[in-house]
Amino acid sequence: MPKLSVNIDHIATLRQSRGTPYPDPVDAAVLAQLGGADGITVHPREDRRHIQDRDVLLLKQILQVPLTLEMALTDEMVELALAVKPFACTLVPELREERTTESGLRVLGRESILQANVKRLLDAGIFVSIFIDTDVDEISAAHSLEVQYVELHTGPYSLAATPDEEDEQFKIVVRSAEHAKELGLRVNAGHGLHYHNTVRIAALPLVDWLHTGHSIISHATLVGMERAVREMQELIRRAARQEF
Ligand code: PXP
After folding, report:
1. HSE-up (13 A, CA, CB side) for residue 41
2. Residues whose beta carbon lies within 6 Å of some atom of ligand 1
3. What's this model's pTM, rounded to 2 decimal places?
4. Which of 85, 97, 109, 186 gets the highest tally of CB atoms within 10 A of its CB?
């Protein structure tokens, strides 16, 4: 059964949108852990638009489940990872103008550029995973960097507009996972997975970790809504009765 690492970036997005100290992604991580998350994932981006270094450092100190950093393979991020020593780093491409990671890391033909920083992470005992498009040549190129994991990009599967297209994309995910396994890579999957499309991917015996964020954070805002409003109403009623 795949393990679930919950990406809590969007709790930080909400915090940063107002510059308040809340909601704190560290609180969210603790609650996710209580809810059964097998791991927590965060993506400290170059522009620090959501997750801050302080979040990463605190998470590493308090979590009892593995912490994964999604990150661009820049010197700055490698330094942060070496200071924090997470369970794993998932290497992603990063474009400043994108809303979320849009594609897998392009490895083919860039192996020699990527090698040195990958090795720094591996030498520090950090598992390295490469977020990769479902393309056998890219997966083989990732394997040549001697990383332990690839994370298959499930975005095209998640975005499929019709059942036929979803079937087609699912087959591509399966073929990619089999290719990665044949090479000896461990296989993770993620991006765009939500409550209606996770089952097929989670049923794949080849998948080690699922990395899911946006759908879980979105669901949490809705399933928590009634209680949040009830608690504010209760506070107002007590105030009206002069009960402080
Ligand atoms: N995996 C990677 C590499 C990602 O960049 C993201 C988005 O941060 C995810 C998984 C999670 O995607 P989502 O938020 O759509 O579940």
Report:
1. 27
2. 7, 9, 43, 70, 90, 92, 100-101, 131, 151, 190-193, 211-215
3. 0.95
4. 186
Are 150 and 188 contacting, i.e. CB atoms less than 8 angstroms apart? yes
The ranges assigned to domains in the chain are 3-240
Residues with Cβ within 8 Å of 183's Cβ and at least 6 positions away in sequence, in order, are 139, 140, 143
What is the atom index within ligand 1 of the atom nearest the CA of 211? Answer: 10
β-bridge pairing 127-132 and 88-91: parallel
Give the active site residues.
43, 70, 191
- Residue 26: pLDDT band by 50, 70, 90 thresholds? very high
* Rounded Cα–Cα distance for residues 138 and 9 (Å): 27
From 51, 100, 149, 219, mutation site for ligand 1 pocket: most ligand atoms within 8 A of C-beta: 100
Closest Cα to atom 5, ligand 1: which residue? 101
Q: CA-CA-CA-CA torsion for 84, 86, 88, 91, nearest 10 degrees?
A: -30
**Rounded distance between C-alpha atoms, residue 184 and residue 243, angstroms:** 64
The rounded radius of gyration (Å) of the Cα atoms in the chain is 19
Average confidence (pLDDT) over 104-133: 97
- List pLDDT tens digits, range 51-93: 999 999 999 999 999 999 999 999 999 999 999 999 999 999 9
Spacing, Cα 211 to ligand 1 middle (Å):
6
User: Which residue from 71, 92, 101 has its CB within 8 A of the most atoms of ligand 1, so it is best to mutate?
Assistant: 101
Residue owning the nearest CA to atom 15 of ligand 1: 192
Class of domain 3-240: alpha beta
